[in-house]
Amino acid sequence: MTATSAHAGDTMKGLAGHGAAVRPAALCLCLGLGLAALGAAPGGVAAQSGDVTVAVAIVVHPATQVDNLTFQELKAIFRGERQFWEDGRRVTLLMRAPVAAERGLVLDKIYGMDEAQFREYWIGKMFRAEVASGPKLVYSADMARELVTVIPGAITFVPVNDVSPETKVVRIDGKLPNEAGYPLR
Amino acid sequence: MARAAGLALLALLVSGPCLWAQDAAAGPSAHGFLFGDVMYVAGGDAPEGFKLGQAVVHGNVLLSDRVAFFGEVSLTGRDTGYGIEIERAILRYDFNDAFKISAGRYHTPISYWNTAFHHGLWLQGSVARPEAIKFGSRFIPVHFVGAMAEGRIPESPVTYAAGVGNGRAANIARAGDAGDVNGSRALFASAAVQPADLTGFRVGGGIYLDDVDADGGTPADERITSAHVVWDRGGLDLVGEFIHVRHNAKGSGSGVTSTAAYLHAGVKLPGELRAFMPYVRWETMDIGEGDVVFTGVVPDYDAVLAGVRYDFSPYSALKVEYRDEKFDGAASVGRLFIQASFAAPITPG
């Protein structure tokens, strides 16, 4: 990891301004339902997301001492192979619920899996005691963006259009989402 | 104000571990699964009919930012009722990704299948484990009571595990739950390589050393070595494993080797049929002539099986499998298995 600062407020001007509403219903749904992030989409064995035409930004808690990750480091974090930041804090992975387009992009680019494989992957990791818990579920980009700012060690992803100035965006292989060669688009 | 309070509550419940480090009163977070199966068996000498398999409750509890507990309890149907067993109970302290230390009862990491699937029938691609690793196996010690260090070597694709424990009990199918039967601790070490650029590929192996004092048997030195290769990606499921067991009778210079191996291959069908995964497996277990631990206890075994797994819901699978088996060189026996299995998430209230 390198120290190439990339606060979203510096680089994503004009992308802010979305309401930061974490709805009470979503709050209730989210309580203790981290396992739902594994993706049991209703009505299908392997729910597929729609086409993704925008880039996905990787965002972390503002106090996390990381500004750049290699794509391999990002894969290791999202796959639960790396569970601690360099400052010793445990990583908390926030994952969008199934069917969100950005989730489909992450499953494709980072995991190389469909929903069924992703679900089995995390159940297997928990079963083998490789991780103490799976990804935590979030139901909207707003929720992801809000929670990542209040949970120390959290990391998540949001569509680049949903990045706000107070969000800390991490460069991937030295690139921001609006730069050529960015791997998550 | 209300929004801030809601966010705080949500953060507490969702993030759990990170916040507990600051506020232990928040309590631990727990996640769990219930694994279960029901099966119909036809053919062979064993009783035919419906069989309720194991019901296994598996739970992970993050007690603090560094401390986790992993537990697993099984209920196994028997002729006279149900047997309850603590399959795993592991208390682990994570220093970092490279070094985690734990104590308890484990699935011995001397075999890939033993740790990857074990009681999680829904996770595995067939109706049952390979014979050498089966429920109640005597070929390898499938459980281990002791302490273990594990982790990932920094900046590398290498994971490792090393431990010390009681080794086999007098009943060699059992771990030494009540202490070491002979005062000689078992040691093991294993490692695996999972290259980041080759998602789904894994190659690894391990070694296990113990003194065995089996009921009615000859005390012997035991050395188990194993190697495995796995490809699990893109709907392709390939697992191959070889296990080599060497027994030297105490006071004897000569040893006897017994071996086991299997090759398992499954492939998901494309498109609309992707919920179906046909699979085949070849297995063999060859007990060495005069093996002082296995002779009369573990049979020679050869098998070929073929089946289809159908994931009819996100957490449920139906497997239909035909198995042709041969024990101790006798005539082969064909059996048909139809099994429904599931993994049900257990959500804390």
Secondary structure elements and pairings:
The complex is a heterodimer of chains A (185) and B (349).
Chain A: H1 8-11, H2 24-30, E1 56-60, E2 68-69, H3 71-78, E3 92-96, H4 101-111, H5 115-127, E4 136-138, H6 141-150, E5 154-159, E6 168-172
Parallel strand pairs in A: 2-6, 3-4, 3-5
Antiparallel strand pairs in A: 1-5, 1-6
Chain B: H1 2-15, H2 17-20, E1 29-42, E2 49-52, E3 55-62, E4 67-78, E5 81-94, E6 100-107, H3 112-116, E7 143-152, E8 158-165, E9 186-193, E10 201-212, E11 220-233, E12 236-249, E13 255-267, E14 276-286, E15 301-313, E16 316-327, E17 333-346
Antiparallel strand pairs in B: 1-2, 1-3, 1-17, 3-4, 4-5, 5-6, 6-7, 7-8, 8-9, 9-10, 10-11, 11-12, 12-13, 13-14, 14-15, 15-16, 16-17
Low-confidence stretches of chain B: 1-26
Amount of beta strand of chain B: over 45%
For the biggest sheet of chain B, the summary is:
16 strands, antiparallel, barrel
The total number of structural domains of chain B is: 1
pLDDT averaged over residues of chain B: 89
Order of strands in the sheet with most strands of chain B = 1-3-4-5-6-7-8-9-10-11-12-13-14-15-16-17
CATH homologous superfamily title of one domain in chain A: Periplasmic binding protein-like II
State the total count of DSSP E strands of chain A: 6
Order of helices and strands of chain B: HHEEEEEEHEEEEEEEEEEE
CATH superfamily of chain B: Porin
Radius of gyration of chain B (Å): 22 Å
Helix/strand order of chain A: HHEEHEHHEHEE
